[in-house]
């Protein structure tokens, strides 16, 4: 991996090396224009082409239906937490949320700041979010404006392998921030998908929004900010003002990379095979303890710990010295977290497992760490 470390960051995260190398060139001179990609006018012909290609490649990679729109919006997924109720909720309306982790809960809490009723269809907080609900556990609302769920819980290391069931006829919204384009998507089950870019798609500060036209038309944007309106974003080609042009460029390059890698089916197979040795080792270890139940484990984020916090800290310190970086778990659950999105190399998993074997051998049975 030359002079680069193995970056297990949950986001911003590892990007494909071919994409980074192409960006190096284009930052200086984009396609012979004499201008760097960050210097291009968002109304110029060069950016017109960047945007057109990004949308076309996004559609091709995801097999996005013709009646869906592709939008690039600023503010990441957290901005989408506010955009959803602002566009689709209101007085006399109810929205359903499935609380399966930190970000799912924050989305629900943001919706509570807006007019309308927010129904928590399920909360895993009492079990420290170590599993996902069965459809039979969901308390959904007839006639809800929408049901929202987070398909991959970055902190907890859980991932939905299905789309949860809403009440009949209720639109379903998927926050796919940390597993977007890690596997094929069945659009027939969904009405909207959004994802922050900084995990599987590009740099931070931007979100990809895929929205079905029939759902878009339900947006009531008369009294909300222009930058939060999905209808405005669709009408203005994601640029009612100066957009994050570099983020759109880089996301476009990532879409091209996914295509070159064989598409989403190939990416899914690679991701499943890549993380398997890590889970296999954890399952066979009496030292390392996984957070998520087996059937709900994520192929993007693996959260685990050692027998105590002192050993966790030692593990993170020694791993860092070996070029295994940003393995510290989120402060809400501690321990370690290995985020291994699409661009993360399989060799990094091998290096991590080898280190875990060594660390367990040297520290098994310890309850304290020598100074």
UniProtKB/TrEMBL annotation:
- Could you say which cofactors this protein requires? pyridoxal 5'-phosphate
Keyword Flavoprotein belongs to the record: no
Q: Which UniProt keywords apply?
A: Amino-acid biosynthesis, Aminotransferase, Pyridoxal phosphate, Serine biosynthesis, Transferase
EC number from the UniProt entry: 2.6.1.52
- GO CC annotation: cytoplasm
Pathway where this protein functions? Amino-acid biosynthesis; L-serine biosynthesis; L-serine from 3-phospho-D-glycerate: step 2/3
Q: Which InterPro entries does its entry note?
A: Aminotrans_V_dom, Aminotrans_V_PyrdxlP_BS, Pser_aminoTfrase, PyrdxlP-dep_Trfase, PyrdxlP-dep_Trfase_major, PyrdxlP-dep_Trfase_small
**Superkingdom of origin:** Eukaryota
Q: What class of enzyme is it?
A: transferase
Q: Which reaction does it catalyse?
A: 4-(phosphooxy)-L-threonine + 2-oxoglutarate = (R)-3-hydroxy-2-oxo-4-phosphooxybutanoate + L-glutamate; O-phospho-L-serine + 2-oxoglutarate = 3-phosphooxypyruvate + L-glutamate
Could you state a single Gene Ontology molecular function term? pyridoxal phosphate binding
Q: Where is the Aminotransferase class V domain?
A: 6-352
Q: Where are the transmembrane segments?
A: none
> What does the record list as GO biological process?
L-serine biosynthetic process
Q: Which family does it belong to?
A: Belongs to the class-V pyridoxal-phosphate-dependent aminotransferase family. SerC subfamily.
**HAMAP family recorded for this chain?**
SerC_aminotrans_5 (MF_00160)
Q: What is this protein called?
A: Phosphoserine aminotransferase
What is the protein's species of origin? Symbiodinium necroappetens
